[in-house]
Amino acid sequence: MERSFYRFPDGCAVTEYGRLVEYLDLREESQYGDIVLAKADRMMRGMECAFVNIGRKKDGFLPLKENSRSFTDGEIHSGDLIAVQIKREETGDKGAFLTRDLTIPGKMIILMPKNRYIGVSGRIQDEKTRERLRETGKRIAGGEWGLVMRAASEKAPENEIRLEFAELLNRWKDTINRLRCAQKPGEVLFSPDPAGQMITDYGIAETETVYLPELPAGLKSQLSAAGNRKVKLSGGGNIIIDRCEAMTVIDVNTASAVYSGEKETTVTAANLEACDEVAVQVRLRDIAGMILIDFIDMDRETDRSLVEQKLKEAFSRDRRKTVIHGWTRLGIMEMTRKRV
User: Fold this and answer.
1) What are the C-alpha distances in Å from 57 to residues 39, 95, 183?
2) 227: buried, middle or exposed (CB in 10 Å: 19+, 13-18, 0-12)?
């Protein structure tokens, strides 16, 4: 994989084979991943949720039941001061999505101080390796903590993982100390480094980072073009991207596309080319949630399977979790991408 990582004062960027695929503006006031002090205001037990004050105009949304069965915290009551983590920033009329199942991320592992779950990154597919890492995680956690073994832990010696575990525990202790002193909802108790997180997610070594005074002109033009509704394909086709409140719809068109061979070959070639561009645009625009892709109609099942496999391959390079659900009855590709 020909991947490059660029750091500059205002942000950072990732390119693959010379194409800009992700851009992070460090000037944006995003608190994704921050652990903050919250005050439980409105308890909606019938809906199993609470609306909590996190120092903003809009209250945050907090589920009363966490997804993990091994979550260790008890019930909360109206007026309680608690530590919550921002899992998704507020959008539109919706407040930030919060969780009490806190995580402290590292390069090789993720510490879950209020959990006992031992997990392994989904990027690691080999079952023997997964089981080995799970056993390593159990030894390190000692039944007192939750851990997720990240992809970087696969080839790391256990003593190095233990050293990082100790560092993450110290960060958690600092967070606890801030929590004891905090009084005002919204006070930040822990804040991860988004640029460092990007480096970790992509497995980029610090020595591979290119430091620049600003985003290069070529990448600036690619970033600017990512705001366009229509994106042209090199073969003459195009894709149209429409973002709605509930989902994003992407339409693939042949337009002036001319490929050698019969009509079905032309259509399939245009769809295959669109797969790579769709993946780039989704990552660069940070599109998440439900995504529907209306590819050009194909008659042969083999061609449909080929396009689905190509789309999965294109998104395999994404650091965000994506699931290709397949074709709907109307012949539209359905997929989801984790929202953060």
Assistant:
1) 13, 9, 18
2) exposed
Q: Which residue matches tokens 């056993």?
A: 135
182 SS3 class: coil
- Of 110, 60, 104, 105, residue with least CA distance to 82: 60
Beta bridge partners of 60: 52
In a shared domain, residues 246 and 161: no
Q: Is residue 1 part of a domain?
A: no
Identity of the amino acid at 178: R
CA gap 333, 304 in Å, rounded: 10
Locate 58 and state its tokens: 């809009």
Domain of residue 268, CATH code: 3.40.630
Residue 266, classed as helix, strand or coil, is helix
Look at residue 8 and tell me if it is in a domain: no
pLDDT digit string, tens, across residues 43-63: 888 888 999 999 998 999 999
- Give the Cα separation of 63 and 300 in Å (integer): 45
pLDDT at 261: 62
Q: Looking at the whole model, is its pTM more than 0.90?
A: no
**Where are the alpha helices (H) located in 100-193, listed in sequence order?**
127-141, 158-181
Neighbours of 122 (CB within 10 A): 9
Range of the domain at 126: 104-188
Work out the number of other CB atoms within 10 angstroms of the CB of residue 297. Answer: 9
pLDDT tens-digit readout, 143-153: 999 999 998 89
* β-pair partners for 238: 232, 253
- The edge-to-edge listing of strands for the beta sheet with 11-16 is 19-25, 11-16, 3-8, 209-211
